[in-house]
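User: Fold this; tokens only.

Assistant: Input:
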Amino acid sequence: MSVQVENLEKNMVKLTIEVPAEEVEKALNTAYQKQKNSISVPGFRKGKVPRAMIEKMYGVEVFYEEAANTLMQESYPAAVEESGVDVVSRPTVDVVQIEKGKAFIYTAEVAVKPEVKLGEYKGVTVTKANTKVTAAEVKEALETERNKNARTVSVTRAAKLGDTVMIDYEGSVDGVPFEGGKAENSPLELGSHSFIDTFEDQLVGHKAGDEVDVNVTFPEQYHAADLAGKPALFKVKVNDVTTKELPKLDDEFASEVSEFETLAEYKEEVKKQLEEKKANEAKRDQEDEAIAAIVEASEMEIPEAMIQTQCEDMVNEFAQRIAQSGLTMEQYMQFSGQTVQGLMDQVRPEAETRIKTSLVLEAIVKAENIEVADEEVDAELEKMAGMYGMDVAQLKQYMGDAEKSSMKNQMAITKAVELIMANVKEKAAKKAKKEDAEEVATEE
């Protein structure tokens, strides 16, 4: 295999990859073996038709597509490694030549990691954090805990915002039911904005047993083009209305949800936890502020393909998260009216921020010659093994060289952040007099 590298504009390169003719023949034969059972030729049993006969009847190109895919999957990773370029995007591939008896040639256009001209990263000014916990915040935390321990009870009254209704529904457009528009005994929290348009609002005021006609209009940018912008009628039956019944905030409640016997002790613990949480959040906020300032002061040219790849990765991460809650992307898009492109556009600013942050921190690691010793990696693995209740030797077996390298890189990035934060300067946050007065009143 041979690889040629051509530098393009805006941190893009074109790799021209040539795979020897003998590898092409192997791939064509593999394609034949894979497809022969699905090809019918008069006079032959399926799976018994000679390759030459198939190529004569259907054309010599019959196995080219399958073979090309195999060759690219097998050769591309090695070609990238041989090229020595730091690829940061998925390739845009174009087949130049595929023919029996000849080398397979294709090109792959990819983005490469851009150079960073670092701005000043020592002595960055950040806002001084306020980690004081107010009485109102303690009260809010207690209310959250009460809600977590609430009982769900059925009610005979009419549904209100905040209630959950169990409903059967079937939707139609112009009297014709549409796919995905029907469900039975589906829970819906009124006011959650889970359903399109004013669907939930129209169920407020109805009791269990009521049958309701709900009229809505699908969004203009709805993922299903045949429904986009169209009015729809949902026939809805309310099977049940439930609400939350909160426990009393007293010593008994405190003893049930904590290790403390009195509400006063529990409140002190809640306040302590909030202080720790605020301190951690303040640390992260200052890190974000400092890194954002360094990014702003630095120069880099981000290739579009790199941004596109990051956006795709983030949308895939989102799909995995909602899958864990039992919802498919198709269902999410149906209920939300969102589209894949809409999600891509939505995550793009965060994608750019992630890329720039990563590039800047990697540049600082390089500028400061930050290294991570094997002993530090071993110590981190010991910590991880303790967290997962595993033997450290067992954990090491699960980790390949790529995982260990990634871990080492991440530890170096952490050191870079620590270096930045060890040199920051703090400035007081501006606070209006009205806000000061409100905080005093809250404490009282």
